[in-house]
Amino acid sequence: MSSQSKNTRLIKEEAKRLGFLSCGISKSEFLEEEAPRLERWLKESMHGEMAYMENHFDKRLDPTKLVEGSKSVISLILNYYPAAVQKEDTLKVSKYAYGKDYHHVIKAKLKDLLNFIEEEIGDVHGRAFVDSAPVLDKAWAARSGLGWIGKHSNLLTQQVGSFYFIAELIVDLELDYDSPVTDHCGSCTACIDACPTEAIIQPYVVDGSKCISYLTIELKNEIPTSFKGLMDDWIFGCDVCQDVCPWNRFSKAHAEPLFNPHPDILEMNRKDWEEITEEVFKKVFRGSAVKRTKFTGLKRNIEFLK
């Protein structure tokens, strides 16, 4: 076995040991296919007020501009599907935000993986990315054979569906590269039909400015009144397109204790949410991704549903 193949095997084994569902690797190079798609999406203002999406256009498409001399993009996915979900007839929080903020949880695992690579393989330089830098996570994961991008624009796999986070290590180490898998959405339009705000404007294209996740998290101003009655009781994020996807029948509960929900999240009824105080907010969402909206943002979302 060549040292390149040996290193690849070592990295994948360690990723598994750290709890990642799977690990795929692709060549660090310019994303030629994605460039016109991203340009069109931005031009048509589908990013809404997410002005940061316009920044670092070249870096989003070329990882060698993020990590000089990089040779490989190591993509990893980490399951967050919960064993229990919120009760019926309550205000809803996206499943990914039930537990501790995934940025911190995954960053720690990536740091461990990078340290392992440096210790076992030698002088390797790289950077870890978790949804907080100009990296097209889903495009890299698809290139690395971890799944295909579904009609709802999320990464999908036949084995475990789509309830997982995507992260990367971009390194200056040559490795064996994986091949993309084929699309298995077929003629299914479940996600398109179910989207409450019709944000999936055509297969594989989501108008971010209409997405409930955008409206409840990214949008800092008031939610436009045109969305009144369309929010489907979501107050932080939205899981509708994933919940209806047939491939998510295969989702299995995660094994990451830090993603376990605060018990109050699963118990709170509509009245509890409507009467939430800042004190309760701080207690329930300490260290959670929900803190991104701040108490005022969550209250705005709750009030909008009344």
Walkthrough of the structure:
The protein has 306 residues and is an alpha+beta fold. The chain has two domains: 3-85 and 95-171, NADH Oxidase; 190-246 and 260-304, no CATH class. The chain is 33% helix and 13% strand. The chain has helices spanning 3-17, 34-43, 57-61, 102-121, 137-143, 190-194, 212-218, 240-243, 263-267, 270-274, 278-284, 294-304, and strands at residues 22-27, 72-79, 92-93, 126-129, 148-149, 155-156, 164-171, 200-202, 205-206, 234-236. The strands form four sheets. The chain has a four-stranded antiparallel sheet with strand order 1-2-7-4, sandwiched between helices. The model has no long low-confidence stretch (mean pLDDT 93). It is found in: Cytoplasm. GO terms for molecular function: 4 iron, 4 sulfur cluster binding; cobalamin binding; epoxyqueuosine reductase activity; metal ion binding. Cob(II)alamin binds at residues 60, 131, 155, 166, 213, 238-239.
What is the helix content? 25-40%
Strand portion, in percent?
5-15%
Summed up, the helix count is: 12
* First and last CA, distance: 63 Å
Subcellular location: Cytoplasm
Domain 4Fe-4S ferredoxin-type: 173-205
Binding site for [4Fe-4S] cluster 1: 185, 188, 191, 245
Subunit structure: Monomer.
Please name the defining characteristics of this protein:
alpha+beta, NADH Oxidase, 2 domains, four-stranded antiparallel beta sheet, 10 strands, 33% helix, 13% strand
